[in-house]
Amino acid sequence: MCGFGRRSAGPARGAGRRADRSTAAAAGAIMSELDRPVWASLQHQLHWGVGDGRARRFKADINRFAATPDEGADNLCALAALVQPGDDAVFLAQVPPIVVPPGLIAVKEALGVQMVATQALAPGEDLQVLGDADAAEMLALATLTEPGPFLPRTHTMGRFIGIRIDGRLAAMAGERMRFPGYVEVSGVCTHPDFRGRGLARRLSAAVTADIQRRGEQAFLHAWTANTAAIALYESLGFVTRAMVNIAVLKRRPS
Asked: Rounded CA gap, 29 and 110, in Å?
């Protein structure tokens, strides 16, 4: 038998519930799919994932997120089975407290914010749509700046745009998780050589505006420690909807 999971002891556990109550009113009605955005996304992006109705994860070259619909024992066992010895770590991100499945260990536990856009933004100008031809540069920029898990095919999850300066990819942003009515703004990063020019702001606003143009709600995630990013998003009209529990899990050494 798989056994029982261990509830995460990370800093997010109690804080997430308290913050969700205090910020939900400002962000609008409670949107339950946003409580488990990874699961919601994997339910509607089946071609990018593996697993079944108990647990799913993105394919290894797409992203590192995994999720379950709830913390039932059978679901946790199914999640553990998706992380094999030698696999890279998987990320969990959800509003409810995280339970670490049997056989896995949390190598990192942290707290993030989930923010939703509350005002219309204007489309961007003079921005380059990025694609397969730019994939190597996108991966290099993400590896350098660490905006979150970014793998060789993460850019295929949605529309990505960038700004080039002197032929170099100076900054980028794009779309990651999505489910009916909602699209996540993600991968926002700027090369250290080009910071302080407002590039992240331009790109974040442009990605959000494009999502809104399609009649969808833009949302995003940021580490609570990244106060500069949170301030940027607030200046664009994003508000915190909830605190999000984040855990990075690996197979327990035998």
From this structure: 26
For residue 38, the one-letter residue type is: V
How far apart are alpha carbons 247 and 91 in whole angstroms?
A: 6
Residue in the block written with tokens 């190598």? 107
Phi, psi of 222 (to 5 degrees): -150, 150
**In this structure, are residues 119 and 18 in contact, taking their beta carbons and an 8 Å threshold?**
no
Beta sheet of 56-58, edge-to-edge order: 49-51, 56-58, 66-67
Give strand pairing partners of 99: 7
Helix (H) or strand (E) holding 76: helix 73-81
Question: Nearest CA to 178 among 211, 213, 209?
Answer: 211
DSSP for residue 152: T
pLDDT at 15: 39
DSSP 65: B
C-alpha angle 96/251/8, rounded to 5°? 25
Task: Round the average pLDDT of the chain to a whole number and report it.
Answer: 91
Distance CA 122, CA 172 (A): 18
Residue 22, pLDDT above cutoff 70 = no
Question: Start-end ranges of CATH 3.40.630.30 in the chain?
Answer: 117-241
Beta strand spans in 38-195 (E): 49-51, 56-58, 66-67, 90-94, 99-100, 104-117, 128-130, 160-165, 168-179, 182-190
The CATH class that applies to domain 117-241 reads: alpha beta
Chain Cα centroid distance, residue 34: 11
